[in-house]
């Protein structure tokens, strides 16, 4: 394989573990804390998870754990979207598993959860793993979005594990994958299969968190990658002084990524979907808000700026939410008639005529391209794929229209020229930052300790993350503790509660206190490229979000 100079030297990086995990593996023992409950709906979660509800939190401390040396085979699955550091989770599991017993074997199921259903795997050995240590991507075994959710699938998993004498599975995934890990753990216990299941918190979106999961892995690297690019664009904007840049940022529903990037780069505008929903802001009021900032900056002679837009925004704007739901119902009902019409303006007219009067008004003020995007491919559940809607272009175009109206009224005299961008995939497979490299390796190493302690239905938890790695704490939390009941596809389901941006939390509060100044003045900060070698205060820093959350 041809490798870059950086890749070559990253192979030699030794990820940092919390002090407790640096002890000999037989001298680390679990200490059980108090029994836990659920996020809410405790009685219903308890009834659905009789074997895994209410388990205690676990912390690792010095002690004796001779059981850990028992021979074990472990299977690992990468689930969902890529997040930097997945390879290091696998490295951590591997190193702990071999430290416990050289005879242990690690099975990597290929292509995500479908790998176990199809018994498609590869044995991960030292030589194969060496080419992936400290690198981004999930290409070591691949990932996928198949969900493990039916009993039939669970039985296949059990059989595949039994065929390979696999004692435990580690599922590396986001909220949905870990919800399914909890259901699988419960199923294996109920059926007496004797296979343990441990989860690891992954997703660049940062929406899988609580006091025991302070951050999901990949968020640090992805936001630093985007922030570097945003900072570069800000400097370009401030040099040429002629463009407004509208930058859409990945992150699905939650706006954690947009908020973190705003804290790192101090742009002129950053929309937070959770605030838009709480304040019931309409699309027009969002456009007015941005146009006002553009006009005020123009008064100071600054016909340039940078606006950050979370990719899920459109779902949080009240009237667009109604529009999307009416279109979904309409297309489900009138699918045949709709499909007979050729793409384009006739389809738009067909839909506009059938919406309620109020909603038709919302639809018709949207630019034609966006109208078309709202009508294109549904996902398997019949929903619009909101991340494919070009909100950056929508807002840039609507702001331009608003400004030309203001010009006619004489309330705006500046010049407006916009550029649009979407940052998403470029952040998901970057070389993990030192933080993600260390955190992921620790999560993986710790996951094996949970297995070696006989636990199942737990999520690997490494905390105190704003401190240096040696002060991190290691342990596990029962996944049921993070669950509540939600309606999914018309049915009540136990799921891990998605963590959205908290408007009374310190990161948002800090942003809200500063945003007016950042809007009018030019206060950009330039984070620069991720640094892998050099002083710890540059290379090992984690996110501003985490630092603010952990200030007392
Ligand atoms: P996960 O929740 O699986 O970690 O995926 C995160 C994500 O990158 C979202 O931010 C984004 O909306 C989505 O995946 C894109 O999915 P796909 O890779 O299927 O296009």
TrEMBL record:
Active site: 205 (proton acceptor)
Record site feature (Important for catalytic activity), residues: 202
SUPFAM superfamilies: Phosphofructokinase
Cofactor: Mg(2+)
Domain Phosphofructokinase intervals: 73-319
InterPro entries found in the cross-reference section: ATP_PFK, PfpB_PPi_PFK, Phosphofructokinase_dom, PKF_sf
A molecular-function term among this protein's GO annotations: ATP binding
Documented EC number(s): 2.7.1.90
Activity regulation info: Non-allosteric.
Gene Ontology cellular-component terms listed: cytosol
NCBIfam families: PFKA_PPi (TIGR02477), PRK07085.1 (NF005482)
Function per UniProt: Catalyzes the phosphorylation of D-fructose 6-phosphate, the first committing step of glycolysis. Uses inorganic phosphate (PPi) as phosphoryl donor instead of ATP like common ATP-dependent phosphofructokinases (ATP-PFKs), which renders the reaction reversible, and can thus function both in glycolysis and gluconeogenesis. Consistently, PPi-PFK can replace the enzymes of both the forward (ATP-PFK) and reverse (fructose-bisphosphatase (FBPase)) reactions.
Protein name (Swiss-Prot/TrEMBL): Pyrophosphate--fructose 6-phosphate 1-phosphotransferase
